[in-house]
Design a protein that fits this description.
Layout (H helix, E strand, L loop, with lengths): L1 E5 L7 H11 L6 E7 L18 E6 L2 E6 L3 H12 L6 E8 L5 H6 L1 H11 L4 E6 L3 H8 L3 H6 L1 H21 L11 E6 L8 E4 L10 E3 L5 E3 L27 H6 L3 E7 L3 E2 L11
Parallel strand pairs: 1-2, 1-5, 2-4, 5-6, 6-7, 8-11
Antiparallel strand pairs: 3-4, 7-11, 9-10, 11-12
Helix pairs in contact: 1-7, 2-4
């Protein structure tokens, strides 16, 4: 299988680089091409560069050959698939993101999901990977404190290893090729403490942002995320393994209970209607 690996945090993200290390070791991957933004592109959504040329450079970084793109994750997916690789990949993996992309608001704005969503728009298979991160580690990434990030290598290793296992599970379930088609692209989210191996098939929880731009003294406005204003429990947030007919649990609820979440998505109309034949837990 030929795989393109991208993200929205940038080519120097420790989670991206460690995921690459684990994927390189996978025997089911025949070719792995690393194509990532030259600088962080979080919250950019599925934006595509249209008003300027996109500069692409090949560089050696962390003992890996990486194509850096001065553009968006969608640019990386498109250029990587059709202009860098000799032929389009069988799978685009996007991530691992420093933070969850659960819920409708994050999923829509996420550059990580955009890398996988753009794959679907191009007729390719995409998987987005995101992880709930401890506040100290997340702040270290925000400040680009690589000394602290290097000290957290065991945590980063564990997260990357878990995501490779979940990617493998999704491919084994053959979600992209079931008849009728189940998924165009997939969103994986892992909780902060990845101790339980149980993973739930989920739907997005509806989320609304608390307004987050703050006015500065110079009259400019600065992005300052303040959370969601409507996180409440719904009747179908409780999931029971033995019940196969209940509606899918919500991704945020699953993460909050310490389980991993896999959301199967259609590029045309959102979350898949899985039908009774798909297991809710795997």
């Amino acid at each position: 299988m030929k795989v393109l690996l991208t993200n929205d945090d940038g080519y120097n993200s420790p989670l991206y680089l460690k995921l690459a290390d684990y994927l390189i070791a996978e025997d089911w991957i025949e070719e792995l091409c690393l194509v990532a933004p030259a600088y962080e592109q979080s919250w950019i959504g599925t934006a595509v560069s249209t008003h300027h040329s996109v500069e692409v450079s090949e560089k050696r970084f962390d003992e890996k050959q990486i194509w850096t793109v001065k553009g968006t994750p969608s640019d990386c997916t498109t250029i990587g698939s059709f202009n860098i690789m000799n032929e389009p990949p069988d799978l685009i993996i996007s991530g691992i993101n420093f933070g969850s992309n659960a819920g409708t608001a994050f999923a829509t704005n996420s550059g990580t999901l955009a890398g996988a969503r753009q794959a679907a728009y191009l007729g390719l298979n995409g998987i987005a990977c995101s992880a709930v991160i401890e506040p100290e580690l997340r702040e270290a990434w925000r400040q680009k404190d690589f000394d602290f990030l290097n000290q957290a290598s065991s945590t980063i290793n564990h997260i990357a290893k878990t995501h490779v296992e979940l990617i493998r599970k999704c491919l084994k379930q053959d979600f992209f090729n079931k008849n009728p088609l189940v998924a165009d692209y997939i969103s994986i989210n892992t909780p902060m403490c990845i101790e339980n191996t149980k993973t739930f098939i989920t739907q997005f929880k509806d989320t609304k942002y608390i307004p987050f731009f703050e006015k500065q003294d110079d009259g400019k406005f600065k992005h300052s995320f303040k959370g969601f204003k409507n996180i409440v429990k719904f009747e179908n947030s409780h999931h029971k393994e033995e019940s196969k007919d209940e509606v899918l649990p919500f991704d945020i609820d699953v993460l909050n209970q310490g389980f991993s979440s896999v959301t199967l998505l259609r590029s045309s109309y959102g979350v898949c209607d899985l039908g009774a034949e798909i297991q809710r837990v795997f």
